[in-house]
Design brief:
The structure is a single chain. It contains 3 helices and 8 strands, in the order H-E-H-E-E-E-E-H-E-E-E. By secondary structure, it is α/β, with parallel strands linked by helices. The protein has a 4-stranded mixed beta sheet, covered by helices on one side. Strands 5-8-7-6 form a 4-stranded mixed beta sheet, with helices on one face. A hairpin with a 4-residue loop joins strand 6 and strand 7.
Length: 146
């Protein structure tokens, strides 16, 4: 149960962003732009740290990408086994028409990893794809069940 103080903090939250560490930030910027329509909002290169950071967005949506020299790749199994490693497991984008999103991705050569799958107890329909570096991306259509 949230305390009064926690509720006060929650009332100030305005959005959520996540950060993906990638091997090639330029390739990731291009893919997320060309595939999901996210635009470059801001970028910072820190050569003294061997790090480059970019913020992509569309409306209120934000995605942070970071490239760090010497970072190691982590590849998750396909769903539903992707949850056997602790930490963030995937990006989830809520969509109003899952079939339309998948149809738009098809000519771009983005294969569907899993789905579409109806998750009736949750009242959602989902599908998963992977970006070029193997990060899982879930598209969720809510309210697809009565």
């Amino acid at each position: 149960m949230a305390t009064v103080v926690a509720k006060q903090v929650a009332d100030h939250l305005a959005g959520l962003s996540t950060c993906l560490v990638v091997a090639d930030i330029d390739r990731a910027i291009a893919w997320y732009g060309d595939t999901l329509g996210l635009e470059l909002v801001n970028r910072l290169d820190m050569p003294e740290r061997g790090e480059r950071v970019a913020f992509l967005g569309h409306g209120a949506l934000r995605l942070e990408l970071a490239e760090r020299a010497g970072s190691a790749a982590l590849r998750r199994a396909d769903p539903p086994e992707h949850g056997f490693v602790q930490g963030p497991s995937h990006l989830a984008w809520y969509v109003d028409d899952l079939d339309a999103v998948l149809a738009a991705l098809e000519p771009l050569g983005v294969p569907v990893t899993i789905g579409p799958v109806d998750v009736a107890p949750l009242g959602i329909r989902v599908a998963f794809v992977r970006d070029p570096e193997g990060h899982l991306i879930e598209f969720v259509q809510a309210g697809s069940h009565p």
